[in-house]
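Re: Re: ligand-bound prediction request (bumping)

Still looking for help on this. To restate: I need the protein modeled with guanosine-5'-diphosphate bound, output as structure tokens. Inputs repeated here so nobody has to scroll up.
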Amino acid sequence: MRLDEVLNSGESIIALATAPGKAAIHVLRVSGTDAIAITNQVFKGKDLEKQKGHTAHFGTLRDDDNNIVDEVLVTVFKGPHSYTGENTVEISCHGSEYIVQKILKLFSEKGVRYAKAGEFTKRAFMNGKLDLAQAEAVADLIASDSDASHDAAMNQMRGGFSSEIKMLREKLIHFASLIELELDFGEEDVEFADRDDLKALIYDLQKVIKALVDSFALGNVIKNGVPTVIAGKPNAGKSTLLNALLNEEKAIVSEIAGTTRDFIEDEINIGGITFRFIDTAGLRHTEDKVEAIGVERSYQKMKEASLILYLFDAANTDFEEVRAEVDELRKIGTPYILVANKLDLVEGQKLDAAFSVYQKDLIEISAGQKDGIEELKEKALHLVKADEFRTGNTVVTNARHYQSLYETQQSLDEVLQGLNNNITGDFLALDIRTCLHHLGEITGEVTTDDLLANIFSKFCIGK
Ligand code: GDP
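Reply:
Sorry for the wait, this slipped through. Here it is.
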């Protein structure tokens, strides 16, 4: 049986929707054509089949010997007005593993199958309740752990991103229909579609797609955190700065498995974005072999990072020394902020005038006094382009979407090239269809069983 046949067979499925273990309550979800009828067989209370959708009913679940399994609250959703689009029942029971197992057994005996990972959301997609990008956003939403990742997932789930893709598709379809109309009149050599207008439309589309493609750099850091290296000589005040950042933000301090002692990662939430701070040995040159390895690894970490905070002790570092470090930093190519720390110890709390050449990249702080921390945060957010996110632009966070958008971009280039070379309408139409194909992959107008299986297997069971 093909996947869509299985999914549309209406076979009822059940799963625990809440996290397993002891809890105040647990919720089990049953979905399928017969979900309400089957629940009705084991439920004593009202006749569930006679109830309206979106109503909750108190009663008991009983086994075949009429023993009470639990007192429950049952919420009835009638298809298509449910998450999956099918008849659905949510059973809130007491939060015991034992009761949950009993209920699962009860339903299994009535022919209800245990759901696979993501199967409820997959059904929602198959039944047209969500498009693919929205379904993926459901998983992102569950995994989100910062304001920014939550906002991005919520926007995508509510269809913000999908409607942008849909708008692009509609423009392209309009374009294609003009070209194809010409093909119908092939013999007569007519041109319905003004070539300059078509070019203008493609430029327009390219601009929107480029913005989306470019937003992935930010989307990726929103989802996974901004890898930030905090570097500088011993005693520059790196730990003090981390603490200052941590204290203010009640951060989640985590020691990521597999990192060595000198690469401890702290996760810090700045302006709703997670920064993953990686402490390193710094850039100094050394004759010591063991230390040299550490420095080499620091370089590597700095290369891979999205941001470097380079700290120096402003009271004990002269300009030449900093200049040598900045030259090294520039070679690495990662955006950096020069952080002059311990300004409270500098005479007159003013840096040497020579430092003014670095004004653009320099922030003066006293980590110990928590002075200048806000400016540093603002600058960090600015460098990772968080401003774009704050202005409400759509941000691509999903690598699969990025890939499809990138391919759309490539095929748009080909359409434009075709227009410039005056290729015939049938070839143009072909290139446009390729664009439509790639855009369709994002929202799921174009899918394969493998793709769906891959996406939904990453969901938790019960979602
Ligand atoms: P790290 O080796 O780079 O991690 O440096 P630490 O954070 O351990 O700081 C080294 C020393 O400098 C400690 O004694 C801190 O208290 C002190 N320190 C750090 N920041 C400041 C600051 O802004 N002002 C002053 N006066 N002392 C600081």
